[in-house]
Amino acid sequence: MSAVEAPPVTSGTILRFLRVSLHVGFAVLLAVGIIRLITGPAEYAGRYWFLALSLLLAVTYLVGTVAEKRFSAGVLQRNPRRFAILWLSIITLMWAVLMCGSVEFSWLVFPLFFLHLHLLPRWAGLTTTALMTVAVVLAQWNSSGTTFPQLPVIIGPVFGAAFAVATSKAYLLLYQEGEYQRQAAEELRRTRAELAATQHEAGVLAERARLAREIHDTLAQGFSSIILVSRAALRSLESGDVESTGESLSMVQATAAENLAEARNFVRGLSSPALAETSLVEILSRLCSKTQREATARGSSLKCSFRLDGEPIDLPQPYKVTLLRAAQASLANVWLHAQAGAAVVSLAFLGSEVTLDVYDDGRGFEPDNLADTVGGRADGSGFGLRSMRERVVAQGGTLTIESAPGEGTVVAVRLPLDAVSSAVQGDENE
Question: What is the sign, positive or negative, of the torsion defined by CA atoms of 93, 99, 105, 111?
């Protein structure tokens, strides 16, 4: 049977224990005074008046402590602290009257010390504590009937007052420490809440960026292809070329079907459906053939070919998706902007890295001008290069673009294979 760990003792626990001890001490000392008053000589004058006053003192003390307790628990709305000085004055006055009637009530001064030191300003609490100490010494001296006060009569109240001053200081330090811990806990909770909100916002932004990349690299490009091919079909239909029109419509249908499959997998959070059915090499080869057919359907003479270098290895799914999307985005830019006659997609496995190069012999451009469009244009275009770069960087790779006006363009993606090779070797050893 395992031992149950005790809960940690905090300053709040110690403060509650001290408050309870104070109230219990007051009740016990008051009860002792009442018992001594009742069991005293029968002919004692004013016994019942003092008994009634002691009961009134008990009720007054109880009302104040219960009100403070209910307010701290949130049950009482109005703060009783505003009446603390009046309440303390009343119970101190009643105590003084009771002490005049019976010296047994003088010992109530010890819990009163703590109340005065806690509720009054420091200087006022010390002053009233000194005055009450003198009053107790005088009452004890008067009760002893001696000419001069005995040493115990002086030492007892003075020692009690000094102990009360030291204990009240310790109580104050504990109270301040408890307030500091409470404020620190509130600050920690607030910081955690802000951190959770920040993480949630960062997650939302990351998911929004991921959705933007997926939409741009799949659906948006498919819709662009459908629009361009449908325009070519309309021109073929107007010219009476039924065969070209049929080919264009078949291309529109195929592209729409692919977009629908991408959309369904996109909703389910999956990768490209093409990668689930075949290898990356095969899908890149098919992508080149499809790009060439689309170009032909639009009336363009773009020739697109695929080339493989090295022995293919099984790549992680994120690598496959990154390379496929990079090829799709690069070829989309070729037939949208490059006005090229030829494009080559080259996939190479070079031992330490896998590379994807997309070359075209189009009109080219000035790479330095990419900084103006890398964040996207106002019409929503210009997002492809940023999306491509984010995908590549997320996999620890690099993306470089080489181009010049009239000299074509090369988009080069490099992904490290060190982690992939280590994982493959680990699987073979197992």
Answer: positive
